[in-house]
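Worked example

This section walks through a single chain of length 204. The input is the sequence exactly as stored; nothing has been trimmed or padded.
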Amino acid sequence: MARPMEQASTFRRPSSRPARQRGVVLVVTMIALLLLLVGAAAMLRSVDTSSVLVGNLSFRRDLTNRGEQAIVAARKALVSGALSAETTRNANLASAYYSAVKFENASSGIPKVLISDSAFTSAGMTVADISGDDVVVRYVIDRQCTAAGEFDTSTCEVVALSGDEGGSNWLRKPGGVSRPLYRISVRVTGPRNTQAYFQTTFSY
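Given that input, the structure is written out below as tokens.
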């Protein structure tokens, strides 16, 4: 009597691919998260740097505006203020921050009396009225002459102006009148003890 044939069972080893794939996905995810964190940190740092730069530019612009106000005040003193009379400009006038003789300059070209607080005080000068909001403004005016007294072309730097009052500027004759040259120097000190210097020349 023949026996029924038994079906041979086949055994397969479990595959390890799903576990390996899950490990690769985890590594990729961690790398992506790391890149996102680095990008976020870089973005925050860029925003902070931009804010600092904008703040510094605004602060610097404010100092520039204060310096321009000082220049306007100095020119006003020469044209219609305490220094409007030529006889007054022949001598020093500390109350108007004025010297009829050139100030001694530092290597930077700025008058030493403006750089040094003690020299500024010793010259009888005080802080200008335009100071405020923790910003200190100081300015000085010096006639570009080597000697006080009446204006003399041999001792003063001069600017040739036209004596012709009419017509356009380009039609006027040069060299009609010689006038002395005045220099306005400004120092602006901010609340963080940041200093800015400005200079201009003016003939009147």
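What to look for: The helical segments are 17-79, 112-115, 117-122.
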